[in-house]
Structure formats: C-alpha cells, structure tokens
Amino acid sequence: MQEKFSRILIGNVLKSIRTEKKIPIKKVAQNMDVSEATISQFETGKNKPTNEKIALFTEICGQSFNFDLDRNLIMDRVYDIYDLYTDLKKEELNETIKIVKDTHNIACSYARFEYYLILYMDAIINQKEVDTALYKGIIELGKNNFSVRELSIYYDIMALEKIYSNEIKEALGYLDKALSNKGNHLMINYHYCSIYLDLGYFNLAQQYIHKSLKMAVQQLSFDRLYYLLLNQGVLYMYTSRYDEANNLFLKLLNESIKRQNEIMKYCILSNLVFTSLIQKDIKSGFDYLNRIDERFTDDLDLRMYKCLLYYFGYEYTKSKECIASFFRDVKNSKYHENFIRALKYMMDNKPMKAIANFETCYQIALKNGQYDRAIFVLKQLNELYLDYGLQNKLKKVKELQENFYKMSYANQIIEDIELKLN
What is the band of 402 on the pLDDT scale with cuts at 50, 70, 90? Predict the structure, then answer.
C-alpha cells in the first residue's frame, strides 16, 4: 500500500510540474528518449520512475528536484500554521510560513502539494490580494495524497475564502466537507458559528458558540476564546438583550486594553456604538466612538453611525456636514449610500423618499445575508411607518422582525444544504 501511495504521489508531483509549465508529454518523452506511454505511466502512478528519471523529467521542465526534503516535516508545518492561526499568533504564523517559503526547491519535491497548501493558507488567512486559482489548481491535482487532517484544513481555508467573498452557501458546503474529514477542529466550528450569527440563524449560532467555547478552553486557545465571547455578545445584541451584551462587551474591552489588542478593541467599541444607537444613548455612543483608534475611523459603518449620532442628538448642522463628507468620499457601497441618503431625506422632511431608500437598504442587506444591517434598517422603518401612519407597512415590518429567519437568505441556504434545527 505504501509503495502504491509513493508511486501515485511521485506521479502527481511530476504531472503537476509539467502541466504548470505547459510542457507537452511528447516533448518530455522525446528528451528522455522514452515513449509517451511511459511518461503517462509515471504520471498516473502505474510505474515508479528512478531518481535519475525524476531528476531528468524535472530538469526538462526547468526544475531541480529536491530529494532530501522530508515531506513529513512540511506536513507538520501545515499543522503548525493552522494551529497558530487558531490561536491568533500571527507573528509566529508568518515566521513559520517564511521558513517554508525559504526552503530550497520545495515546489519541486515530494512536499510540493503541502507547499502550495501553505501558500494558499498564507493568501487567505493574511487576506493578500493574490489570485489563488493557481494554488488551488495545483492542490487539486495532489489532494488525494493529503492526510485526513490536511484535507480538513484545505476545505476549511476554502470555506474562509468564500466567507470573505460573501459566498455563504459555498462556504457552508466546504465546511461540511472539512467536518466530514474528521475535521472537528475549533476553527471549523468557529466558522460555522460566525456564518450563522451573521445570517441571523441564532439557534444554530448559539450551539456552535457553546461548542467552540468548550474547545477553546480545553485547548487553552485564550485569544480565540475572547473572539468567541465577542460573538456571544453580538448574539445578545442581535436578540435585543442589550444589558447582557453591554456587560460582556465592557469586560472584553478591559481585556483588550490589557492585551493591547487594537483590533479586538475596535470590534468591541464598534458594537458598543451600535447598541448605543439602538438605545438612543447618544452620550455613550460618542464616548465609545471617540475611543476608537484613528486608523479605523474610515470604516463605513462607523462613519454612518457618526452621522446618526449627530442626528439623534439633534445636532443637525454637524449631521449635515458628516453626510456631505460621506457623499464626497464613498462611492462603492450601495447599502451605505442609500442609508445616508435616507437620513438626509429625513432631515429635509421628505419621509416618503427616506422610506424608499431605507427599503432599498433592507433589500440589499437581505440579499447579502447581513442580518445586523437588515434588522437595524427595520428598526428605522418601524419608527417611520409608525410616525406617518403607514399601518399596513407597520404590520409587515413587525412580522419580519418576529420571523426574520423565515424571510431571510439564511433560510434559503439552510434548506438548500438540508440542515435542520435540532
């Protein structure tokens, strides 16, 4: 069995190198003075080439094969990088990736597919602007040589890429594949809970949050634990348990300050600004907004919250200045543009136009599966419908608020992949 696996691995490596370089089998066969059938047998693992033939094959492809590299060592690097990603140890993660990248001729070795999996992990985890199609194309040629854990990691990273591009249905499909490959890892469960939380499918989100919290404690993954607790706070916030949300956020805020974790601090303060807006606590909203580091103040949600805080605080001149600045700078977010335009119409006493823009915002958020934005817009519409006696619309918005998940993109996804609530 091991001999067969070795032949298949070598064949996949050779085929992958040849196809990447776009070299025809005929050219390799002619230069090696063998038949095309022999090359095909090497590449399919039916015959195992000698080291001399491997060296000649790769030399024809402009490569030099590294026979000395220990593939098991690079497999361990894959596991190390994934564990460091789980524990949010970014410096150590990137140092490990650098060590792999600096390894002599690693792309032309028995660890070729592990190497490209690491390049793919680097691109997605660090959100680099890289075309990952080449990495995934090479990995697909050799993924049948992966260990079960490598496969689960690969599918989880594919899910993460889809999460970042807001292709949620595809992300859930890859998470299912990751889980089916004995992938009961913390990050897979974390990604499940994040997706269901964002989509407003709260029963499932809570289940995965609880499961992930237990795993984080068992694995002593304390940095990841704090982000899970942040998700729990967001769940409280989305379900209108504002006191519980704020208490948890404030505890986490103190912890983020102690740890000098500016990204977590920013996430927590953003949520505190959001809850302040919902509760019309203008003073607290500005206090939290002013505590956010300047490098995050270009965030579109924060800029929108600032306009709203001025508006709810009856500082209409400042709100108009804020709105004018927003329109000068923001051109690529239909949700935010429509929301700010709706706010301007409210200030100009044009409620019907404001309602039309808020309804557009709601549809955009719904289409993108963004529960937080959709439910926030519904709250604004609820007040406008009430103020202007639009009873039919008021009744409809209450139905949407009470049964949001039945109307949302989340429900379509759940039904499509045949997941059910327990």
Answer: low
Q: Which residues contact 165 (CB under 8 A, 6 or more apart)?
A: none
In sequence order, the β-bridge partners of residue 109 are: 66
- pLDDT tier at 389, thresholds 50, 70, 90: confident
Cα angle, residue 376 at apex, residues 372 and 379 outer, rounded to 5°: 145
Structure tokens at 217: 């404690």
Say what the pTM is.
Answer: 0.81
Q: How many other CB atoms are there within 10 angstroms of residue 263's CB atom?
A: 12
Q: Are 339 and 358 in contact (CB under 8 A)?
A: yes
The residues facing 66 across adjacent strands are: 109
**Cβ-contact 269, 291 below 8 angstroms:** yes
The pLDDT value given to residue 403:
52
Alpha carbon 400 to its chain centroid, in Å, reads 27
What's the pLDDT band for 417 if we cut at 50, 70, 90? very low
When pLDDT is averaged across residues 22-33 and rounded to a whole number, the result is 89
Q: What is the pLDDT of residues 166-201, one digit of tens each?
A: 888 899 999 999 988 877 899 999 999 998 888 777
Q: Phi/psi at 109 (nearest 5 deg)?
A: -160, 175
Burial class (CB within 10 angstroms; exposed 0-12, middle 13-18, buried 19+) of 104: exposed
